[in-house]
Amino acid sequence: MKLSDFDFDLPEALIATRPAVPRTSARLLVADGAALHDKVVTDLPDWLRAGDRLVLNDTRVIPARLTGARHRDSAQGPVQARIEVTLLEPRSDGAWAALIKPLKKLKIGEEVIFSPDLRATLIGTADGQGHLQFNCAGDDFDAALNAAGAMPLPPYIAAKRPADAQDLTDYQTVFARTLGAVAAPTASLHFDDGLLQHLADKGVTFTHVTLHVGAGTFLPVKVDDIADHKMHSEWGQVSAQAAAEIAATKAAGGRVIPVGTTALRLIETAARDGVIKPWEGDTDIFITPGFSFNVADALMTNFHLPKSTLMMLVAALMGQEAIKTLYAHAIASNYRFFSYGDASLLIPGARKPA
Q1: How many C-beta atoms lie closer than 10 Å to residue 120's C-beta?
Q2: Edge-to-edge strands of the sheet including 234-238?
């Protein structure tokens, strides 16, 4: 398969820079087999039934974007330079891997000051990233980061506007609890407590898993033959309880429906031998057409970037022609795209709502 097989023309005006308000008022394009239905997220319970299980990624986005200054003495006296940092992931040595601009202007051992309570020292570099050792850890680090940092909005939003205080709420799911992501599991942004309760009242159950979404989710595919693409890795965990809940739903004939591609990739990683099991580690699973799904029966997801690995994933679930038809309909109907955009519910095969 070629990269061009997953390309399409998207009008820039359809790229959402703010979410729908309220969250559940976003539009929902339901693909029930070959049939397409224009709905809104509040209609989701109409398409699920008692015994279905939604799998939710409970990762919590950290305000990973920091702006600081490094100070240096020169022949002309003290000088300072602006340093921009995007935290990527914590390392085993306690430091953080980060994208740093300009990395070449920062020397090993130099300190960057972000706020009176937060500063970091560059202790190493590798693969175009810097390794930063912060002056605090644990709850003190979380508090200082929350005060000094901004939400790491995706590049296609950040290019249009800076992150602001509203993004601290908008770019976080209502069930986020495990700190570590630098990008949101965006399909989950459409849920609020009222919708979750409505689903529970209908008999839909929920399982929480954790996949810390990394900045690699936005990396472009640069090879023409997608088989040559090297997938980024992200840390995830499927607990024993989560695996048991999912297995019980499958055994009872219920549908397992991950909310978001992150949740789908994680549970399929934990079921590569055909049966869902507890799992923890770094996954670089790359789902393309021809993939055999062992757990996911459907998927709720947003609309994705052209030529992205996520387009390949949804094509694997629904079929390439079905996805082409769905995306053409979404564009013609002015659905909003990407992280703050509208959603789709993808149900393979001809199934009817409950």
Answers
A1: 26
A2: 256-258, 53-57, 205-211, 234-238, 279-283
Question: What is the helix (H) or strand (E) element at residue 112, kind and residue range?
Answer: strand 111-115
CA–CA separation, 175 vs 189, rounded Å? 9
Residue 207, classed as helix, strand or coil, is strand
- b/e per residue, 17-31, with b = 16+ CB within 10 A? bebbeebbebbbbbb
Instruction: Give the chain's length.
Output: 354
Sign of the CA dihedral with 239 first, then 229, 325, and 340 last:
positive
Per-residue model confidence as pLDDT tens digits over 203-244: 999 999 999 998 877 778 999 999 999 998 899 999 999 999
3-state secondary structure at position 283 = strand
Cβ atoms of 3 and 226 closer than 8 Å? yes
List Cα–Cα distances, 32 to 298, 349, 351, in angstroms. 10, 7, 6
Q: Give the span between the Cα atoms of 325 and 312, in whole angstroms.
A: 15
Q: Of 264, 320, 261, whose CA–CA distance to 294 is shortest?
A: 264
CA torsion through residues 303, 309, 315, 317, sign? negative
Q: What angle do CA 327, 330, 336 make, to 5 degrees?
A: 115
Residue 179 phi/psi, 5-degree rounding, is -60, 140
Using one digit for the tens of pLDDT, what is the confidence trace for 296-306?
999 999 999 99
